[in-house]
Amino acid sequence: MGAALQVTAFGLALLSTLFLLLATCTDCWMVNADDSLEVSHKCRGLWRECVTNMQDGVRTCDQYDSILADHPVKIVVTRTLMITADLLAGLALATLVLGLDCITFLKEDPYVKLKMCYGAGVLLGAGSILGLIGSMWYAVDVYVERAMLVSHNIFLGVHYDFGWSCWLGMAGSTGCFVASVLLTCCLY
């Protein structure tokens, strides 16, 4: 039972960590809402903004000036939280690999291997909380920005919604949290 639970938690942690990394690196945190009048698809991410022409499929991207330049708070906070979540999830994954029963590392000391799995669960939990806060921070900020424009009857020509990168960050964070629960609560 313990080995199957470890392998399940490892698979979920691996997939969730990949989701977190993809969410951090991709550019569709905010997308323009579907509108029949639009001739282009706009995506805003943490690192750049891209526009795809719907007629010919040409995609152009504008990099943000610099990592250290003045950016909106939602971008800076989300970048920081997502990068930290990625690092914690990656460290947890490496620790979990060494703590798995099917790996011969420290085979003679199962108590240490169990502690490594528990530590990986704690790291995954911390990473999942940071990733969820980062994703939700960005999503709430997009919603508040849109609600304020609507409440003041301001229409800028583009209406933004949550993009797939934001949803991927939330899914990766949730998966890391479930793997953390499996490793910290269910493994003993």
UniProtKB/TrEMBL annotation:
Gene3D superfamilies: 1.20.140.150. The chain crosses the membrane at residues 118-140, 162-187. InterPro entries: Claudin, Claudin16, Claudin_CS, PMP22/EMP/MP20/Claudin. Residues 1-28 form the signal peptide. Its main location: other. It is found in: Cell junction, Tight junction; Cell membrane. This is Claudin. It comes from Oxylabes madagascariensis.
